[in-house]
Amino acid sequence: MGQIFPANLNRFSPYATYRFLVYFGKSTTPVAAVSKVGAIKRSSPPIEYKEGGNAIILKSLGRTTYDPIQLDRGITQDADFATWANYAQLLDQGAPSTSLANLRREISIVLLNEEAQPVLRYLVHRCWVSEFQALPELDAGANAIAIEHIKMENEGWERDMSLTEPVEK
Question: What's the pTM?
Answer without folding.
Answer: 0.88
